[in-house]
Task: inverse folding
């Protein structure tokens, strides 16, 4: 074997030797698990409408129910197994957001309720909230300036 | 002792590794090196309430093991060089404080143990100590919590991602005594088969 001299050669060597993530399998699992979660959401929505709720009320019930299920599954150490299996399929729906807040709350409980649970609860979801809210404020200002 | 070249120190009397000990977690106990460890744990908490307390207990018990295997009293150990991956080296400072040996907390991530051996050897060669204790520890769960994501977070790892060791290693360096494995009754116990 010829000696590895440049960074590029080393990086090619590592790429050749390291096993790749099974992308097709991951995509398939993400697709059907994500689809299943959305179907459950739709079922809850249809059930609420059937019971006489309006569109806004029904979609609020869907969010609350899925967040509750995801939070309980995180507490029972089941959600991380679903997440390892389904990846973005369980991460992208609102279930992933609930998991990203509940999991630090569990992990940092050992550091106390105020500075541990309270302070560290948003370590994972914090950047999403900061940039999501900032972006919506900017878009809102643009909308006010140009849409009227 | 003199400084030769750019990064090399030549010791006049090379120190001896008097004795070593290691305690590891369940995943390491399933690997091919299991028979070389003193103890393989079955529970990552080891009866403690937090990952940090468990890691602290692992390094404490490892150090107790190495001292009892070496046959020298802990009062004969002059200094202790130890570190881990956590903030303010809490697992080693809390694990070792009951020993009452002067403690140097060091941090070098993966290189902490070698760093402790280097510094300990220089202390011995400089005649600042007769015996020094070098130790390190890490815990997968406490390292994930400190550097990456909570364990309950449903994220995926690539097949080549690293896995922080749960375990601790310790060695006693001596300026005067010789390696005691030949005259001790200690034998490796194979913890793969639960004996």
Result:
């Amino acid at each position: 074997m010829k000696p590895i001299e440049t960074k590029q050669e080393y990086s090619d060597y590592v790429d050749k030797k390291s096993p790749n993530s099974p992308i097709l399998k991951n995509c398939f699992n993400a697709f059907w698990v994500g689809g299943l979660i959305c179907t459950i959401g739709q079922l809850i929505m249809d059930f609420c409408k059937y019971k006489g709720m309006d569109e806004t009320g029904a979609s609020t019930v869907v969010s609350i129910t899925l967040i509750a299920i995801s939070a309980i599954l995180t507490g029972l150490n089941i959600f991380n197994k679903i997440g390892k299996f389904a990846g973005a399929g369980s991460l992208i729906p609102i279930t992933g957001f609930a998991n990203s807040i509940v999991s630090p709350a569990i992990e940092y409980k050992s550091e106390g309720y105020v500075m541990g649970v309270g302070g560290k609860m948003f370590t994972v979801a914090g950047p999403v909230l900061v940039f999501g809210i900032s972006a919506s404020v900017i878009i809102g200002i643009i909308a006010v300036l140009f849409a009227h | 002792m003199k400084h030769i070249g750019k990064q090399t120190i030549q010791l006049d009397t090379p120190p001896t590794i008097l004795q070593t000990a290691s305690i590891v977690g369940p995943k390491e106990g399933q690997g091919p090196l299991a028979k070389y460890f003193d103890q393989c744990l079955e529970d990552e908490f080891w009866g403690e309430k937090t990952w940090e307390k468990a890691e602290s207990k692992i390094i404490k018990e490892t150090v107790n093991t190495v001292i009892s295997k070496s046959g020298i009293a802990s009062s004969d150990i002059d200094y202790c060089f130890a570190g881990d991956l956590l903030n303010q080296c809490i697992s080693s400072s809390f694990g070792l404080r009951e020993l009452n040996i002067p403690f140097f907390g060091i941090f070098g991530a993966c290189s902490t143990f070698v760093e402790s051996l280097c510094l300990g050897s220089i202390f011995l060669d400089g005649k600042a100590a007769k015996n020094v204790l070098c130790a390190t520890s890490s815990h997968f769960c406490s390292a994930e919590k400190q550097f990456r994501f909570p364990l309950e977070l449903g994220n995926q790892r690539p097949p080549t991602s690293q896995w922080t060791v749960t375990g601790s290693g310790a060695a006693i360096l001596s300026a005067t005594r010789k390696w005691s494995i030949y005259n001790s009754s200690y034998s490796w116990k194979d913890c793969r088969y639960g004996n």
Remarks:
- Residues 23-50 of chain A form the longest helix (28 residues).
- Residues 23-147 of chain A form one domain.
